[in-house]
Amino acid sequence: MTRYYVGDSPVQVTVLAPEMSWSFALFESASARLVDPDGAQHEGLTASLEGLPEHIEVVWPKGSLLNKPGLWQVLVGLTAEDGKIEHFPPYGIPVEQHDGWHTIDSIRDVWREAPLDDAELFTYLDAAKDLCIAKADPITGPVPQRYRLAQAMQVRAMWNAGHVSSGGQYGSDDQAVYAYSMGYDIVKLLRPSGAIGGMF
Question: Mean pLDDT per 10-residue run, the chain (200 residues)?
């Protein structure tokens, strides 16, 4: 999947394939809007219905609309002959920045079992970064490597916490892996001098 950073100008058409339950037979046109991480909508995208196989092509305008980091969304509306409109499922576009913290690619290098969906992984990665910044000693220069390590540990802990059973494990019974809190280890990386008693 193409990676986007703040200031990028996408040059390729974004093709959205419908889910199995969708059919374009009842629709005659499509439109597209771009929603930034703050919820503001941006015009300029165009969309068309294409066939064989059925899909939607979204064309980006000249210039960059991606002016801030975060999870952007492409919203596509399908218009029927009688004017009724239905909306296609949102398409998430992570927009990253070169700020010294982990990116989608760098976290995949150290976490082979990371979620396959880029938008989902980015959401966890961004949340882990915010938590680390809130807990860490102030950053006065480049992001320290131990902060990046803490972010990697935190994003795994958050992912595991959301995929455990009531018994504190994830996976099938015969291949269960137990999830333990890594909070204290993470705090020690972010604030070595004040880690005692500090937990996420």
Answer: 87 81 84 95 91 87 90 93 89 94 96 92 93 89 94 91 57 41 76 56
Which of 106, 39, 38, 46 shows the shortest CA–CA distance to 76? 46
Where in the chain does DSSP place strands (E)? 4-5, 14-16, 27-35, 41-42, 46-50, 55-59, 70-80, 85-87, 91-96, 169-170, 177-178
- Dist. CA 97–CA 120, nearest whole Å: 17
CATH number of the domain that 33 lies in? 2.60.40.10
Strands 4-5 and 91-96: parallel
pTM above 0.70, yes or no: yes
Same domain, 90 and 135: no
Bin 100: left if φ > 0, else alpha if -120 < ψ < 50, else beta.
left
199, part of any domain = no
Which residue range forms the structural domain that includes residue 189? 104-194
Of 46, 51, 43, 2, nearest to 22 (Cα)? 51
How many folded domains does the chain comprise?
2
- Same domain, residue pair 114 and 189: yes
Query: Of 96, 117, 150, which residue sits at a domain end?
Result: 96
Do 4 and 96 touch, CB atoms closer than 8 A? Answer: yes
Q: What is the DSSP letter of 159?
A: H
